[in-house]
C-alpha cells in the first residue's frame, strides 16, 4: 500500500496564498492547490471542506503573517517618530504596481468576509497602538496620532498606485516624513 503524502496545514496555506497572489482569489481551487502542493484534491477537501473555507483559512493565515511581521518590525524600530515611519515603510514593500494591484483583490476578499474584516479591525487597533507608543514622548502629538498616521500611510499607498513613479517605499517614506513634520509643527489647538 502506498504511503499517503502528508503536509502541515501551514505549508498548504502558504501554497494557497502563493496561488492567490499569482492568480487572484478566484485562481485558488482544490485542483490548483493540489498541483502546487502535491496533495490530492480529495485530501484538501477533507481538510478544508469547501473552497470558501480554504480561501478563508489561507487569508487568515496571511493575517497571522502580517501580525508577526508587524510585531517583528515594531520590536526593531526605535520608539520615536522616526521609528513609526520606519515601521510603516517596512510594511510597505509591495513590489511593483502589479503586485500592489493584485493585493487589492485580496483586500476585497477581506472586506467581504466578516471574520477577515474583524481581523483587519484588530490589526488596525494594534498598529495604531504601536504607532501611538512611538509618539509617547513627543510634545504636542495628538492623542490619536497612531490612527492618523496609519490613515496617511494607507492614503500614500493609494496615491502612489495611481502614479507609481519610483519605489513605493520611497514614496511612503517621503509622504510620512512630510506628514509628521507638518503635524508636529502645528500649534496645539490650531486649525492650520
UniProtKB/TrEMBL annotation:
<protein>
    <submittedName>
        <fullName>AcrR family transcriptional regulator</fullName>
    </submittedName>
</protein>
<dbReference type="Pfam" id="PF00440">
    <property type="entry name" value="TetR_N"/>
</dbReference>
<dbReference type="InterPro" id="IPR001647">
    <property type="entry name" value="HTH_TetR"/>
</dbReference>
<feature type="domain" description="HTH tetR-type">
    <location>
        <begin position="6"/>
        <end position="66"/>
    </location>
</feature>
<feature type="DNA-binding region" description="H-T-H motif">
    <location>
        <begin position="29"/>
        <end position="48"/>
    </location>
</feature>
<keyword id="KW-0238">DNA-binding</keyword>
<dbReference type="InterPro" id="IPR009057">
    <property type="entry name" value="Homeodomain-like_sf"/>
</dbReference>
